[in-house]
């Protein structure tokens, strides 16, 4: 098991768009396995490759934070092909410490991507899974959930982050499973 370092906002690695995976091979398998271990170890329910400094379009999602593995999704080159409705969900993120905010997303999505055994798959998702998939695909495009909230809220968070860094204060702990 190999745990990877999760980059934290405002690291510029998080704002960079990830590249398409051209070949799914053993390296992709190692990357996704390490990403799953890293996500579980951090008690997260989603992780995108650029959060661990790898600019490839690969994500892992497991929305069941109690019973791990059953709902695990590993997806390469994921993209949203259909979306409908609207939902507001409180989101946190493994790269945004000690913060959560309500974000508006599509309520239902159809996501297409590739599995490790090189099969193209469609995932129909709603509610939390839909939110997670949109959040991770956002990561691959260099977008964080805090880019989708008001500038005022984002500025307030940035200031709090600076104060925390200055005082050496540690976060209170996550309130909701980060995506
Ligand atoms: Ni995130």
Written description of the protein model:
The chain has helices at 26-41, 127-140, 151-167, and strands spanning 46-48, 58-61, 73-84, 87-93, 96-105, 108-114, 120-126. The protein is an alpha+beta fold and 179 residues long. It has a single domain (12-167), classed as Peptide deformylase (Peptide Deformylase), CATH 3.90.45. The two termini are 21 Å apart. It binds nickel (II) ion. The site of nickel (II) ion has 6 residues, from helix 2.
- Catalogue the unreliable spans: none
The CATH superfamily is identified as Peptide deformylase
The CATH class is Alpha Beta
Shape: globular
Helical percentage? 25-40%
Biggest sheet strand order reads 1-2-3-6-7
Computed CA radius of gyration, to the nearest angstrom:
16 Å
Q: How many strands in all?
A: 7
Range of strand content: 25-35%
CATH topology: Peptide Deformylase
Distance between the termini: 21 Å
The CATH architecture term is Alpha-Beta Complex
Number of domains: 1
Structural class by secondary-structure content: alpha+beta
The DSSP helix count reads 3
Largest sheet: 5 strands, antiparallel
User: Average pLDDT, to the nearest integer?
Assistant: 95
Q: What molecules are bound to this protein?
A: nickel (II) ion
The H/E string reads HEEEEEEEHH
Topology:
Elements: H1 26-41, E1 46-48, E2 58-61, E3 73-84, E4 87-93, E5 96-105, E6 108-114, E7 120-126, H2 127-140, H3 151-167
Antiparallel strand pairs: 1-2, 2-3, 3-6, 4-5, 6-7
The structure holds nickel (II) ion.
Task: Give a summary of the structure in a few sentences.
The protein is of the alpha+beta class and about 180 residues long. It contains 3 helices and 7 strands.
């Amino acid at each position: 098991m190999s745990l990877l370092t999760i980059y934290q906002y405002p690291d510029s690695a998080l704002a960079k768009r990830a590249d398409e995976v051209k070949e799914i091979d053993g390296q992709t398998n190692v990357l996704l396995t390490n990403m799953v271990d890293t996500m579980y170890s951090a008690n997260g329910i989603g992780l995108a490759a650029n959060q661990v400094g790898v600019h490839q379009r690969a994500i892992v999602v497991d929305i069941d934070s109690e019973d791990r593995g059953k709902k695990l999704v590993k997806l390469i080159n994921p993209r949203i092909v259909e979306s409908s409705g609207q939902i507001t969900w409180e989101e946190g993120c493994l790269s945004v410490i000690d913060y959560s905010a309500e974000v508006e997303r599509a309520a239902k999505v159809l996501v297409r991507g590739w599995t490790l055994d090189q099969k193209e798959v469609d995932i129909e998702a709603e509610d939390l899974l839909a939110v997670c998939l949109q959040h991770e695909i956002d990561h691959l495009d260099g977008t964080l959930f805090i880019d989708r909230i008001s500038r005022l809220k984002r500025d307030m968070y940035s200031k709090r982050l600076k104060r925390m860094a200055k005082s050496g204060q540690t976060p209170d702990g996550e309130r909701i499973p980060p995506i």
